[in-house]
Design a protein that fits this description.
Distance between the termini: 37 Å
Number of strands: 21
Oligomer: single chain
Structural class: mainly beta
Largest sheet: 7 strands, parallel
């Protein structure tokens, strides 16, 4: 429990291989912290069977962040009240599977409450990732720090909605220059909320599958 800590992460795995985090509960509420767990230049690591909770509604506060990581497994975790549960940056060849997320608490301080995806590709060089069997608000690929390509979404359930989130309720949001994505066998959207199948209007297209 890092509620009273000023540190950046609860767990940091840096320049490491073949490590694992399993069966733990990580809690944080301090707005100064970045990650509950960060994989930084980490390979062949496993994060599984764990519970991640707690942020205060700021815009940058992540659950599991992979930064320069490869060949990792993030599996069967629960994320609750986390701004962005799984954030992928400069990473390749990992598996994100069978995790659940709810109440992603993004807020920008101006009264806008975007629906954040359970998984967000947030930097260049995100390649050859497999996202399988996850359940959560949505999936996002942005272009803020560069493009991503050749990743696969397989048999996920992305609802396109989340409690208290009224903006950008989109099940899958892919921004410019996100190339060669495979989206296969997923269930996308929520009846009564998702009203549009596909748009090219960019972020903020509420109630949209793509």
């Amino acid at each position: 429990d890092a509620s009273n800590s000023g540190g950046q992460m609860n767990v940091a795995i840096y320049n490491a291989m073949n490590d694992w985090v399993r069966g733990v509960r990580l809690i944080r509420s301090c707005t100064c912290q970045r990650d509950l767990l960060q994989l930084n230049m980490a390979a062949h690591c496993t994060v599984a069977d764990s519970y991640f909770y707690g942020t205060q509604g700021q815009s940058e506060n992540y659950g599991v962040e992979a930064y320069g990581a490869s060949d990792d497994l993030i599996e069967n975790d629960i994320f609750q009240h986390v701004v962005a549960p799984m954030v992928v940056q400069l990473s390749l060849g990992s598996v994100y599977a069978y995790s659940y997320a709810i109440n992603d608490t993004y807020a920008d301080g101006q009264g806008i409450h975007w629906m954040q995806g359970e998984v967000i590709q947030h930097n260049a060089g995100v390649e050859f990732q497999l996202y399988e069997g996850n359940v959560g608000p949505g999936f996002g690929g942005d272009v803020f720090h560069g493009n991503q390509l050749m990743n696969t979404l397989f048999r996920n359930y992305f609802l396109g909605t989340d409690p208290g989130r009224a903006d950008d309720t989109t099940a899958v949001s892919l921004e410019s220059y996100i190339r060669y994505m495979n989206i296969v066998g997923n269930v996308l959207g929520t009846p009564g909320t998702t009203t549009t199948y596909q748009v090219t209007a960019g972020p903020g297209a509420d109630g949209t599958v793509f």
